[in-house]
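From: lab user (bench 3)
To: helpdesk
Subject: output format question, protein + nicotinamide-adenine-dinucleotide

Hello, I'm new to running complex predictions and I'm not sure whether the block I got back is the full result or only part of it. Here's what I submitted:
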Amino acid sequence: MVESMRSVRTLGLLGTGVIGGGWAARALHFGMDVIAADVRPEMEDWIRGAVANAETALARLTSAPLPPKGTLTFTTDLEAMARRADFIQENIPEQLELKRRVLAEASRHAPADVVIASSTSGLMPSDLQRDMHSPQRFLVAHPFNPVYLLPLVELVGGRETSLRTLEAAHAFYTYIGMHPLRVRSEVPGHLTDRLQEALWREILHMVNDGVATTGELDESIVYGPGLRWAAMGTNLIYHLAGGETGMRHMLRQFGPCLKWPWTKLEAPELTEQLIDRMVEGTQAQAAGRSIRELERLRDDYLVAIQQVLRQFDIGAGSTLRALEERLYADSAAALGGADGDGAAVPGQPLKTLQAEVRPEWIDHNGRMAESRCVQVFGDAADALFRLAGINGADRSAGRAFFAVESHVIHHAPASALDSIFVTTQVLGVDDNGVHLFHSLKRRSDGRLIATGEQRYEYASASEGACAPIDTAVRARLDGIRAAHAKLRAPAQAGRHVVFPGT
Ligand SMILES: NC(=O)c1ccc[n+]([C@@H]2O[C@H](COP(=O)([O-])OP(=O)(O)OC[C@H]3O[C@@H](n4cnc5c(N)ncnc54)[C@H](O)[C@@H]3O)[C@@H](O)[C@H]2O)c1
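Helpdesk reply: Thanks, we reran it on our side. This is the complete output you should expect:
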């Protein structure tokens, strides 16, 4: 029995179709290497295309500093993949015998401290782990399409799955920005597909009976319940439907309907006529748009919805916030010295940020747009404040710095995907604020792209908008300032907009 599971640098994929491609895109984006195995060699082009497609939307999900992207390799040799991967995700077709055989084979080659997870939509983990070596390291981890944008992953242990495996899987999926939902006991279809299928059966009945078209049924969700579901789900929303007394009143009022024949649940026969109606209905809804076009539209609104939910710190928006906290903290720890305690490196400004220039940051003149420079300098300042001891709890409680003045000078063009970094020099600290100077440079040649000078003030919700800086934070900032006082003052510091004609 292995005491702990290994930390994950390389994700191994078994099966590189729709779901395997989605896992690859997500893992690579958050800095994991991926080794993808499929029996069909032509899937290499497919998965590379799928990853490139996903990147367009993924790149817009967060502007938090990301680690360098992982590397994708492809193989048709399952054994080679299983020997190299630190964590294996199986995504082959939904057939019990096939999955059982392939999982057993992978488990013979993968060391026992490598977690093996299956993306199965509804098979039971106890059935899948039956023939495996070290079956305690197996679980079901059921994602949702598109895996690279939807955070939900249902974690289901089988009879032999160990708690350590579930914990290691939970940590891994959280790291790549997901919301792991532990399913208490294995049931066919897990939780979500069971719910989705109940709805799906009713849809088939209503189309079959000529009650509604596929388009009308989608309208019945899209303009109503669908908007509520994204943030509150069914139960909390029904709690609100009960008025002041919530769910209790709701059940009293609508409980009797449960006895009425509103739902049929047993699926109708899939006749050719029903299949035609479903196909024709959805083709009419697509209105000539290709699957690719519709996927792009779906991806764009999924990104936008998560960004809106983040403002309310609810549902998938909370997951995105937590991911960003982790990305900022990792970036600060990587840049601010081994112990990440805010210690300044003598003789140098602090490296506060490293990032990649996103394509949409570049304006029509091939320069980083001003708003993006301000955003990057804001992120760099945030990293400095983290080093000085301001954490997520402080910010939620209203104890944080806010920008009161910024001056950006553009020095050189930049290109999409340039690797950049920011250094920050603390020019001054007083009771209420700090005076910062940032330099944004290209990593490959150190060329200066932009500089920014900023004044930040400290706010405390308990003491009003502007307040004395917390004592411990102030002490750290003073320490950094003392180290930076020995540096040469930046030539651009103190500049204002100069226009020769005036
Ligand atoms: N498509 C979805 O919406 C969705 C959502 C969640 C979970 N899932 C689950 O994910 C799994 C994969 O579904 P998918 O939609 O990606 O299927 P898919 O048909 O798109 O991909 C399956 C891939 O597995 C490969 N394969 C077949 N046998 C193999 C073997 N022995 N070794 C290695 N590769 C092999 C195939 O060549 C193919 O590329 C299924 O279990 C499915 O239930 C699917």
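A quick orientation on your result: Residues 14-20, 37-40, 43, 91-94, 102, 119-121, 142-145 surround nicotinamide-adenine-dinucleotide (CB under 6 Å). Let us know if anything else is unclear.
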